Amino acid sequence: MKMPKKIRKYCKYCGKYQEMTVSQAKSMGRNKAHPMSWGSRLRMRRRGLDRGAGNKGKTSKGAVSSWKRYGVKSSKKTDLRFKCSVCGKIMVQSSGFRAKRIEIK
Question: What are the phi and psi torsion angles at 7 (to 5°)?
Answer without folding.
Answer: -135, 145
